[in-house]
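Example 3.2
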Amino acid sequence: MLPADLLRVAGVGLRARRLRAALSALGVAIGIASMVAVLGISDSSKAGLVAELDQLGTNLLTVTPGQTFLGHDAQLPQSAARAVRGLAVVRSTAAVTAVSISARRSPFIEAAETSGITVDATDSHLLEALGGTVLRGRFLGAGNERYPEVVLGAVAAQRLGVHGLTVHGRPVQVYLGSSWFTVAGVLGPQPLAPEIERAALIGYPVAERLFGTTRHATALYVRADPERVLQAAVLLPATADPQNPEQTQVSRPSDAIQRAPTPRARSPPCSSAWARSRCSSEEWGSPT
């Protein structure tokens, strides 16, 4: 058939079967609208993710000990934080060391009932490295890191039932190990370090005195120069552990958010020794 004949036949079909033509047009319109809506949601989610990453920063790196050649858990040197802090590409560094005790609201609760709360010894640079905020109270510093005071992550405070720093005019206390600690502050959300949200943080001096904690960090949080993040990732293993750089893992938590299906997904897989017990951020690759 000629093109003119095809147009005439099509026109006759549309006039003779108006309901079918209308339903076909409606189906095409619904299909186009659905595609536009799906693409719009994707673009909106991507814009939200970019905005969240811009706010949190993509220059946060974590350094954790990996495993030895024989498969044993490695250990960072006690000087790792100080050495990393001296790098020109690093803006701030904070060390965190796990303390093998439980955090409870009272000694009448079984020590095994931890509610997923961990106890960590840390230094005063942690808040700066994470870019976090204190919702209530104050963070650890030179004035209180030597005393039995604790700063709770947002999730830890909720699970311990701590809604303020005082009750009936008396300071709120929690039971760490076998000692009472006064709650000095409560942190805000930490999207790039969810393990800190579930932690009770104490100072290194009091952790050493009461629990014999060493300064072998189980994690280093490093805030690198935004323009030299890749360079920092290359330098960190040999700087943190010069004798065994291959046993050091470097990760970037923001990569886990970028690869997540939604901007709110923040639970990456656990890979290193620190991550297996604390579920830290996804391994980002460690130069050897």
